[in-house]
Write a structure and sequence with these properties.
By secondary structure, this protein is α+β, with helices and mostly antiparallel strands. The protein has 6 helices and 7 strands.
Length: 234
């Protein structure tokens, strides 16, 4: 077993466990866009980024690809981590504002503006469809081509694949295929329509945002207010 510290709590995990798996095991939910438990880690979206190390010698790593190490100090919701996640969500909003998955992430993380040029693309290059096709459907009908801004997903030689079974696995797992509620004629790159569904916890500890999901403190506070209101009505 490997012992490490996550958000100030001493935890133990088996060797080979990633930081994302360790966090989930102990009830700490990290946002992801390119990760699925049935597929190999890819580390493309960077939303699961965490801060490791202490003092001035800290660095940001993707939790889904970084293995747990003995004595490692991990912070999953520090101010630095939260700022990076919000910036990444803004970039995804500019790339594919029609995705409900990305819109929900924006609402959950309090992103209410998009400072980048909106492109309305239909792919965020998360690689989920490529891994789904190869690892779950055993098709290998699609893959990445090109580099940098020219990188895209297509079939070999851009021709109809003779190994594709039209199973729909790629569309099922694609976050860009999950259209936002307002439809294709959205007026802005961000809607925040679901911002009231899960209020963000405003109780900080040091420079760390509350990582409980759902937040026990918030639930207790809500129950206390409801009880107080019922007594007033009586």
């Amino acid at each position: 077993m490997i012992t490490l510290k996550i958000n100030g709590i001493d935890v133990a995990v088996e060797k080979g466990t990633t930081l994302l798996e360790a966090a989930k095991f102990y009830g700490i939910n990290l946002p992801t866009l390119c990760h699925d438990d049935g597929l190999t880690p890819y580390g493309a979206c960077r939303l699961c980024v965490v801060e490791i190390g202490t003092g001035d010698r800290t660095q940001l790593v993707s939790a889904c690809t970084y293995p747990a190490e003995q004595g490692l100090v991990v912070r999953t919701h520090s101010r630095r981590v939260t700022d990076v996640r919000r910036m990444m969500i803004e970039m995804y909003l500019a790339t594919c504002p029609s995705s409900k998955t990305i819109q929900d992430l924006a609402s959950k993380w309090g992103v209410s503006r998009c400072r980048f040029e909106v492109k309305h693309e239909d792919c965020v290059l998360c690689g989920l469809c490529v891994r789904m096709c190869a690892q779950q459907m055993d098709g290998r009908a699609i893959g990445f081509v090109g580099r940098g801004k020219n990188r895209r997903i297509t079939t070999p030689f851009d021709e109809k694949s003779d190994v594709c079974r039209l199973c729909g696995g790629c569309m099922y797992i694609c976050p860009a295929c999950q259209s936002r509620c307002q439809g294709p004629q959205e007026r802005s790159p961000i809607c925040n329509a679901c911002v009231a569904c899960e209020p963000p916890c405003l109780v900080p500890w040091d420079d760390m945002k509350c990582y409980m999901d759902p937040c026990v403190w918030c639930e207790q506070e809500t129950k206390r207010k409801l009880l107080a209101e019922s007594k007033v009505q009586e």
